[in-house]
Amino acid sequence: MRILFKLYVTFFKIGLFTFGGGYAMLPMLEREVCDNNKWIEKDEIYDYYAIGQATPGIIAVNTATFCGMRVRGFFGALFASLGIISPSIIIILLIASFLKTYSHIEVINHAFAGIRVCVCAMVLSTVIDMIKRTCKDYVGVLILILTFLAVALFKVSPAIVVISVGVIGVFLKRG
After folding, report:
1. pTM assigned to the model
2. Dist. CA 10–CA 14, nearest whole Å
3. Cβ of 65: how many Cβ atoms within 10 Å?
């Protein structure tokens, strides 16, 4: 029971301090799950994160579910998932109750603008770290460039890109 509580608290902290969604969560997820608690290896986190992106639902919840399942099975998945969503529910309820009343205050608007800039920096840091970890040869760099072009310029669905690159990866490793 102690490990389940620790899973809940750990993912509660990640959910509480992660603004900006899945990409912004990855550095904190690595630090808490891999470095501090040593539940999962860093390469495994990136695998869970990639699968979490490719599966329907919220990336943070999917990743928390995979991590919890790895650590303590079904109940680990349940406690990690509840931990990651609890702060959002609490914060949304608080913001909803106060925002309508205080949204006209300039300081509030500046705070949200600052948070958006911070989230952009965290996402950029994560992207750079992921590129360093995953693009280890010319094939990886080529896949990165082609994937970026497909999604950014040609507006190809990320789901189609993920599935296609997964299939290509299988064929490249077989040959």
Report:
1. 0.63
2. 6
3. 22
Is the C-alpha dihedral spanning 8, 9, 14, 17 positive or negative? positive
Mean pLDDT of the chain: 89
For residue range 144-169, what is the model confidence (pLDDT) as tens digits?
Answer: 999 999 999 999 998 899 899 989 98
Least confident of 7-11, 26-30, 96-100, 134-138: 96-100
**Would you say the C-alpha torsion 78, 119, 46, 163 has a positive or negative sign?**
positive
Q: Answer whether 131's CB lies under 8 Å from 144's CB.
A: yes
d(CA 136, CA 39) in angstroms, rounded, equals 25
User: DSSP string covering the chain, please?
Assistant: -HHHHHHHHHHHHHHHH--SSHHHHHHHHIIIIIIIS--S-HHHHHHHHHHHHHSSS-HHHHHHHHHHHHHHHHHHHHHHHHHHHHHHHHHHHHHHHHHHHHTT-HHHHHHHHHHHHHHHHHHHHHHHHHHHHH--SHHHHHHHHHHHIIIIIT---HHHHHHHHHHHHHHHHH-
Q: Is the pLDDT of residue 112 over 70?
A: yes
